[in-house]
Design a protein that fits this description.
Elements lengths: L3 H9 L3 H7 L1 E5 L1 H7 L6 E6 L12 E3 L2 H7 L8 E6 L11 E6 L4 H13 L4 E5 L8 H7 L7 E5 L1 H7 L3 E11 L9 E6 L7 H4 L4 E4 L14 H12 L3
Length: 241
């Protein structure tokens, strides 16, 4: 049986201030939990309705009821297990040849998808502005489908970073160079802006190149692409060369 206090603490971990207070975050579902075992993340304990499926002797696994799982899960349809994990130590930053830089991304689903894309294309590091959504947010963790264990996430003053980096800063703009004819520099920062407002002006001033995804449809009514969709299209093209 989980105590009322434990349930209250776990329920509070959907908010950043409580994740920081307790130094904990949750990972749900056996499939994603198994990704943790080959990562640097430390698991405090696992709460499971079927502990035998996990078959772990090195981590405390507590058997809980379906009802208890529903109380602590952040999912509409709770999965088999919940892992209680410690927040990682602050990550160090060293320039990689290809990096994503996120300027104020707010939607957890978008961030989770972008992390998954980075993992797919072998991008080891994402640099985030300090106001980008917290990657320990349960929706980010879920949308990343375990990829968060393989991508270094750094939160920093991106204006300061972009003004000092040796990589070429590339952003998107309707007037930019056609993505499909663009010659990719060897070392790049691909900057993705906020869903509603795009990049802040201070970031835009630091761009060295701009690209655009040309529109092939006859209809001109589609105003723009979702940021994670745009990221997928751009990365697919950049890596095709």
């Amino acid at each position: 049986m989980l105590t009322a206090h434990t349930i209250k603490v776990l329920q509070s971990l959907d908010k950043k201030k409580f994740r920081q207070k307790y130094n904990l975050f949750l990972v749900e579902g056996n499939k994603i939990i198994c990704e943790l075992f080959n990562s640097n993340f430390k698991v405090k304990e696992i709460l499971s309705t079927d502990p035998q499926k996990l078959d772990r002797t090195d981590i405390p696994v507590t058997h809980i009821s379906e009802n208890e799982l529903k109380k602590i899960s952040f999912l509409k349809t709770p999965k088999d297990s919940v892992a209680v994990c410690y927040l990682a130590e602050e990550n160090r930053m060293a320039d990689k040849n290809i990096q994503l830089v996120l300027d104020g991304i707010q939607d957890p689903g978008n961030l989770g998808t972008i992390i998954r894309l980075a993992d797919w294309f072998g991008i080891e590091q994402i640099i985030c502005s300090e106001d980008t959504v917290d990657f320990y947010n349960p929706k980010v963790i879920q949308a990343s489908m375990g990829s968060f264990t393989r991508v270094n996430m750094v939160y920093t003053d991106i204006v300061k970073y972009l003004s000092e980096t040796e990589n070429i800063n590339i952003g998107t703009d309707m007037e930019g160079e056609n993505l499909y004819t663009f010659e990719r520099p060897e070392k790049i920062n691909l900057i993705l802006g906020n869903e509603g407002n795009g990049m802040r002006p201070e970031t835009e001033k630091l761009l060295q190149k701009c690209i655009t995804i040309p529109r092939f449809g006859k209809s001109q009514s589609t105003e723009s692409l979702n940021v994670s969709m745009a990221a997928g299209i751009i990365l697919g093209q950049l890596f095709s060369k």
